[in-house]
Design a protein that fits this description.
336 residues; alpha/beta; Quinone Oxidoreductase, Chain A, domain 1; Rossmann fold; 2 domains; 7-stranded mixed beta sheet
Length: 336
């Protein structure tokens, strides 16, 4: 099979990943072998490739928004899935199930957690193995390329929205408008929110308005009304004070990224007073994933994608970094 491996983490403008041909993986007990039909290109993949996230597995295959068809179930595996079924493989790959965090329902904080495309090989390949207990059933009504962004951009965005504590009919600000934010905007609008988008990219602002946002302006512009809640998707710490200043009294800011550049000093009176809150977001729970995918099954979402053949994964990562597309990028092995 073909697979992209992170050989020399560094700027994607160079050659940090290498396309190799190797034997397809063999599933161990409790694992499934999937033929990859689509894999989203997430900003976390960019952080792994460029070395912003410390290497956990040298030479890892990136990719954790994987839609694949089951071709083998390892002997001894207990699962309701069947060979031939289309399933999803997300970022969260393993938790211990016994620590205090797991037992209280916060498995995303498990100290023994492992992640697809970081600790184990991911979906920038023709085949991938995944633990059956962490594989997800997928909603109907979508193509594989549309389903892929739901598996991280959608799930993590959904958790970030929950962490933002948006009140019913509230005013929500989204900072950055890529693969995750354009899905979150639709969820919030379905829930009755007024959504205001702040992003530097003109195409993304146009998409936001097409999807029903009440306004769209540049990243550091003020929204037209105070915000009850906001989510920062862009991995830029400089946005945090701007977003806090845009919050109304008692507002909540949710930080959705796994990596962010340094945040500048905050002024207590301008940014934090009046009981404003900041919540970070770390991964997701399987409960988050099931809730969001159930929502996607009940409400057909518009999923903006740009497709690349598997052999052009390096181009997709460069285009993601440069902001050359609105929405999400998806790799398709069958395009080659």
């Amino acid at each position: 099979m073909r697979a992209w491996r992170v050989r020399n983490p560094g700027p994607v403008e160079g050659s940090p990943i290498e396309l190799v041909v190797e034997s397809r993986p063999v599933p161990a007990t409790d694992e499934l072998l999937l033929a990859v039909e689509a894999c989203g290109v997430c900003r976390t993949d960019l952080h792994v490739t460029e070395g912003d996230l410390p290497v956990h597995r040298p030479g890892v295959v990136p990719g954790h928004e994987i839609v694949g068809r089951i071709v083998e179930i390892a002997d001894g595996t207990t699962t309701d899935f069947q060979v031939g079924e289309l399933v999803g493989v997300p970022w969260l790959r393993h938790t211990c199930g016994t620590c205090a965090y797991c037992l209280r329902g916060s498995e995303n904080l498990c100290l023994s957690s492992l992640y697809t495309g970081w600790d184990h090989d991911g979906g920038y390949a023709d085949h991938v193995v995944a633990p059956a207990d962490y594989v997800l059933a997928l909603p109907s009504g979508y193509m594989p390329t549309q389903l892929a962004p739901l598996l991280c951009a959608g799930i993590i965005g959904y958790r970030a929205l929950k962490r933002a504590e948006l009140p019913p009919g509230g005013r929500l600000g989204l900072y950055g408008f890529g693969g995750s934010a354009h899905l979150v905007a639709q969820v919030a609008i379905h829930q009755g929110a007024r959504v205001h988008v702040m992003t530097r990219d003109r195409k993304a602002r146009d998409l936001a308005l097409e999807l029903g946002a009440a306004s769209a302006q540049d990243t550091y512009d003020s929204p037209p009304e105070p915000l009850d809640s906001a989510v920062v998707f862009a991995p830029v710490g400089d946005i945090v004070p701007t977003a806090l200043e845009a919050l109304d009294r008692g507002g909540t800011l949710s930080l959705a990224g796994i990596h962010m550049s340094d945040t500048p000093p905050l002024d207590y009176q301008r940014h934090l007073f009046h009981e404003k809150k900041i919540h970070s977001v770390e991964a997701n729970t399987r409960s988050d994933a099931r809730e969001f995918l159930q929502f996607a099954a009940q409400h057909l979402l518009h999923i903006e994608t740009t497709e690349y053949p598997l052999t052009e994964a390096h181009t997709a990562l460069r285009d993601l970094k440069a902001g050359h597309f609105a929405g999400a990028a998806v790799l398709r092995p069958d395009l080659d």
